[in-house]
Design a protein that fits this description.
Blueprint: E1 9-11, H1 20-26, H2 37-53, E2 58-63, H3 66-75, E3 83-88, H4 91-102, E4 106-111, H5 120-129, E5 135-141, H6 153-162, E6 168-172, H7 184-187, E7 191-195, E8 206-211, H8 213-220, H9 231-235, H10 250-266, H11 268-289, E9 296-297, E10 309-313, H12 318-329, E11 332-336, E12 351-355, H13 362-378, H14 387-397
Length: 398
């Protein structure tokens, strides 16, 4: 479908839809990187980022994607010979563990699979068994973008405390921050990582690492951290270029300023409520479609589903067939079944994801659902009718 046929919609779990305000803010000539507006804008970003993460701690910005934020967070608290505990619930939990291994960090993995959230009791057991206290941190994914599992970070903190263990709690909030409720300080996370291309509604390229004084103390005891990843100068810069370890990401700064203004104008509580409401509409539709037996949620329990992304399954290869039909005939792009391959479905063709994060509202969600119903009908995929009506009723009920 050409652009002349209407505006395409990427209903993928990042990069998310960029608001016009963000695009306009970025559409400018290169500014001075030594003085003036960009310097002033950057200084104002830090407290507003902390407001989104709900922390009184430090906020740092890296010119990096989420993988870079993973590495930045780890490089400041763990090195060769150290050990971390990773309770994984999907591809992205495993990915953070792989980053740790490339840094020479030993990983103790508790793999909960792709449909089950973290069991805090197993985390507590693993920490109690670590009698020599080698585990320096627990790496917990708040929302795994592949499986759409939403984990209880506060419960993981309680497990660490119950074990009497000094390990830091590090939370991957790349898919959840500014979408799902996340309370860094209240929930006891010592480190949180996020990125610009999801709830922050800015193009990929910025990674965010938040840390508290406990994590800062661990960094202070590290024998060496590479100058680029070191968060000390970034969090307490002596000169402007220290914020970014070099040249500033000028246009991303303008875009992020616009995005943060939008988030705070709406209010973070309202942002969370909007995502919950829109997710509920999508779930209502999928529950109706699933009555015919073909469509299924990856996460059965609503309490453990992300409000930013929903992972779904069909009989292979119908997930891929549906995605391809929607892109070709409706201008809608759904997310691939990333990390969902099985022995019976080696390419993950039975899975797909709906992204509903960031700059999204009711008519966007209803448009996606209407297009999906057309695709299910066109492809002869079994589904119950009335799903879009169910979504509309869910939205009307608030």
């Amino acid at each position: 479908m050409s652009d002349a046929g209407g505006r395409p919609y990427r209903a993928i779990p990042g990069p998310s839809v960029m608001p016009e305000e963000v695009l306009r803010a970025m559409h400018r000539t290169a500014p001075n990187i030594y003085a003036g507006e960009v310097v002033d804008l950057t200084e104002g970003l830090i407290p507003d980022l902390r407001r989104v993460a709900r922390t009184e701690g430090h906020a740092t910005i890296y010119i990096a994607n989420g993988h870079g934020a993973w590495e930045a967070s780890l490089a400041n608290v763990a090195g060769p010979g150290d050990k971390v505990l990773v309770p994984a619930t999907g591809r992205f939990g495993l990915g953070w563990a792989e980053i740790a291994e490339t840094l020479g960090v030993e990983v103790e993995l508790i793999d909960f699979g792709r449909q089950t959230p973290i069991d805090p009791n197993r985390v507590e057991e693993a920490l109690r068994a670590d009698t020599d206290r080698r585990i320096k941190a627990v790496l917990a994914t708040h929302v795994d973008t592949s499986t759409s599992i939403r984990n209880d970070i506060a419960a993981v903190r309680q497990a660490i405390d119950a074990a009497g263990h000094p390990a830091l709690l590090m939370a991957d909030c790349i898919a959840s921050m500014a979408c799902d409720r996340f309370e860094m300080d209240a929930w006891g996370a010592d480190v949180a990582v996020a990125a610009s291309q999801k709830g922050f509604m800015v193009p990929p390229g910025l990674g965010f690492v938040f840390f508290n004084e406990r994590a800062a103390a661990v960094r202070a005891a590290m024998p060496r951290v590479s100058r680029y990843w070191d968060w000390r100068l970034r969090s307490e810069p002596e000169m402007f270029y220290h914020y970014f370890g070099g040249t500033a990401p000028t246009h991303h700064i303008y875009g992020l300023r616009a995005a943060l203004d939008m988030i705070h104008a709406e209010g973070i509580e309202a942002v969370w409520a909007r995502h919950e409401r829109l997710a509920g509409a999508i779930w209502a539709a999928c529950e109706v479609w699933g009555q015919a037996g073909a469509l299924r949620f990856n996460v059965a329990d609503r309490a453990f589903r992300s409000h930013a992304v929903t992972s779904l399954g069909l009989n292979a290869p119908d997930g891929t067939r549906l995605r391809q039909w929607l892109e070709a005939n409706a201008g809608v792009t759904l997310g691939i079944g990333l990390g969902m391959a099985t022995e019976e479905d080696p390419h993950g063709d039975g899975y797909f994801r709906i992204g509903h994060m960031g700059h999204v509202n009711a008519h966007m969600v209803l448009g996606v659902l209407g297009a999906m119903e057309a695709g299910l009908s066109a492809l002869g995929i079994p589904h119950e009718t009335g799903a879009v009506d169910a979504a509309a009723r869910a939205l009307a009920a608030g």
